[in-house]
Amino acid sequence: MISPEAPWDVVVIGGGNAGLVAAITAREKASRVLLLERASAALRGGNTRHTRNVRCVHDSGDQYTPGAYPYDELWRDLRAVGEGPADEELASFTVRESASVPGWMTAHGIRWQPPLTGTLHLGRTNRFFLGGGKALVNTYHRTAAAAGVTVWYDRIAEGLEFTGNRCTAVLVSGGDAGDPERIPARAVVCASGGFEANIDWLRRYWGSAADNFLIRGPATNDGRMLAALYALGAAQAGQERGFHAVAIDARSPRFDGGIATRLDSIPFSIVVNSRGERFYDEGEELWPKRYAIWGRNIAGQPGQIAYSIWDAKVNRLFLPPMYGPARADSVAGVAAELGLDPDAVAATVAKYNESVVAGSFDPSRLDGCRTDGLTPPKSNWAQPVDTPPFYGIAMRPGITFTFLGVRVTADARVRTVEGGAFRNVFAAGEIMSGNILSSGYLGGFGLTIGTVWGRTAGAAAAREAVEL
Amino acid sequence: MTDAGMTDGPFAVPFAEADRQLTICNACRYCEGYCAVFPALERRVDLTAGDITHLADLCHDCRDCYTACMYAPPHEFALNLPAALSAVRHHTYDEYLPRLTWPAGRRGAMLAAALAAIALLAVLGVIVGGAGAPAGSPYRIVAYPALLVAFGLAAAWSVIVMAWSAARYWRATNGPGWGGLANPAVLARALGQAATLRNLRGGGADCSYPGDEPSGARRRLHHLIAWGFAACAASTVAAAISQDFAGDPPPYPAASAPVLFGVIGGAGLVIGCAGLLVLRRTAASSDTASSDTASSDTPAREDSALARRGYALLAALLVLAVSGLLTLVVRDTAAFGPVLYVHLVAVAACFAIAPYTKFMHVIYRFLALVRHNSELRQR
């Protein structure tokens, strides 16, 4: 045993993708690296457990990503979501660095698989790792253990201790001692994620609507380290209401429901709110480019709930929902089963059906099957909802992660409100995603941010520790 | 689940649980790259009991989907698909046996078949006698006609029961008709996948067996058993050819085909069975032990009754292989007679009981692979 007083070279807070990548990278230069994982071994990995692919620049296709995805195209895609990148310099660095991410992952044990079926046409732009996020976490733990990284489970980083501009220790609870332990450190990487599971914090920006949000990742993502950094004078990055949220089944568990609760029926259905009225163009764009706006769309509706309603014609065009849909022989019947006003929904569907312009339905592209004279319109995949049986599912906003975080420098140092930066505190992953994302999201880019900035922060922290 | 066939009675619980878990898997699909189970699942929306049986036998129990599952216990979804599918296999292995009115059920039928085979061997051995055979010949112990009849009857019984079970299984999982069984290309692909244990490769990641760490040990040991078994069969065929066509009766010299095949096959069986028995014990203890890995504080990953059948099959094969090798070792000593007799009794008994054991996984898994490859071609 090393004396508890001997400082660790690098302490990484958080055991998701960004933290693991940072720890593995730091260990290449620094000899004593400690990773603090808040969960037990069985539930380790935070939100990363629910990921499945990574979006990276590649100049040619291969067996896992058929077709090139050049820098300019990813950059364009990133600028097109929400209000575009918050900090263009850091965002373009992320996109540039993404090109080397798959190779780095392979070199550290990650295996790949061909694009999953029914995954929103992500095959060309996104690389799928074999087995999904928990397999990735397991692999990185193996790699980290082989490299000599120490991991402590069930530990919560409560705060940081400073001497001047330099962090000297991490205060950690959850160990055998009742009070928080003081873990001396030469450099610290904060990779502890957003605050999406902290409903009180969400309520500050969303009011009581936050009470109706479902959180797709673990309940432990309460932003404790983010709050501690703000209290120490860290500068804020990102929008207060910035988050990645999708439409998920209203019956999902409050926390940690992950991918299996997501609904992909929207582009082939019509979506009504609790008054039975449509409120947004369901067929605006290909689903991969629009799935991430529907959490926000539903968050803006009364009661933060909406209902996807479809008919037998399209029932097999999307992944079968985990809890199964409500089903009836009439639209009014489905509405009644969903607890909606049957007359209102029937009237909405009738009006929609009348406005559908005949066209050639094709789920694989923007098919131009649209409505005419309807507000809001449905711009693609519009077909009359007229073939029984009819189906419906209630949906809630499923919050994946929040963007509001800490501002960082180009080498991932946490900036301060005074204009400088902490000497030896770095950030990676969701906790600094607000430097790059504003209000919209691009599928698979969270893993890209985590890997690029995990490498950057890990390397910078190790340099800092070794030079000290 | 829409099929009423097995949704009540003793099969309700394992089928309902597998259905619950597979529905979540079908909404997730992260494990698609590991094996054939997930692509096969994704072609289905409403699962029938036949579908679930099919998926259960496609599962080669590599357990990679379990270690990769973010919904594994202690998550509230509590997914443990390898265990759920092994529980289904446990039930269906009996379900497709011919309906016997044997009062003591499967074990009674097994015991009766084994005793009948042993008795037949003994009685015929006494009646025919082996005094006429030359010194060193196995036929001094049990005369050739007696062997032929006793083993022939036991094998015929076994083949009939297996074929009967296979036909019932095929009807339940595939429906009427020959389906992919009549398609040589499908059969060839299924044979190739069975021979290489492709579905035990975890999409290149190898198995999470016996613990959470990836390992090829189980696949390699299984290869030793399967190919060892084949080599023992080849030894028997080679001996038959030598005797009946080349006019060269046993015993055979060490450098002959029957002895070489027998030694290589027997050695493969001994190493493979002993190795898998050790892995099984390790797997069982790592299911319950707590260690510093991802998913160790979790329930068992295999149905316990099916696990017992796994032990039994390995133990039986080990007895066959060890007694067979021992026969060769002691063939110039006084022990030859008793050892050979034990070996023959073991072989006859194993022939007779094979359809009631986990040996049937060979047939059910192969039929599942045939159906799977047939579906792949239709797509």
Q: What brief labels describe this structure?
A:
heterodimer; A: about 475 residues; alpha/beta; eight-stranded mixed beta sheet; six-stranded mixed beta sheet; 12 helices; 19 strands; about 25% helix; B: about 375 residues; mainly alpha; about 0% strand; elongated
Please, could you describe this protein's structure?
The complex is a heterodimer of chains A (468) and B (379). Chain A has 468 residues and is α/β, with parallel strands linked by helices. Chain A has twelve helices and 19 strands. Chain A has helices spanning 17-29, 71-80, 88-98, 101-107, 133-147, 199-206, 224-231, 287-290, 294-299, 331-337, 342-355, 445-467; strands spanning 8-13, 33-36, 53-55, 112-113, 126-129, 150-152, 156-163, 166-173, 181-190, 214-215, 236-237, 243-249, 270-273, 306-311, 326-328, 390-402, 405-406, 413-415, 421-427. In chain A, the strands form four sheets. In chain A, strands 1, 2, 6, 7, 8, 9, 18 and 19 form an eight-stranded mixed β-sheet that branches. In chain A, strands 10, 12, 13, 14, 15 and 16 form a six-stranded mixed β-sheet that branches. In chain A, helix 1 (17-29) packs parallel to helix 5 (133-147) and helix 1 packs parallel to helix 12 (445-467). Chain A is elongated. Chain A starts with 7 loop residues before the first strand and ends with a helix. Chain B is 64% helix and 0% strand. Chain B has helices at residues 12-28, 37-42, 49-58, 64-67, 81-95, 105-128, 144-174, 184-196, 217-244, 257-288, 304-329, 336-353, 361-378. Chain B is mainly alpha-helical and 379 residues long. Mean pLDDT of chain B is 89; it is low at 1-6 and 289-297. The interface between A and B is large, with 42 and 39 residues.
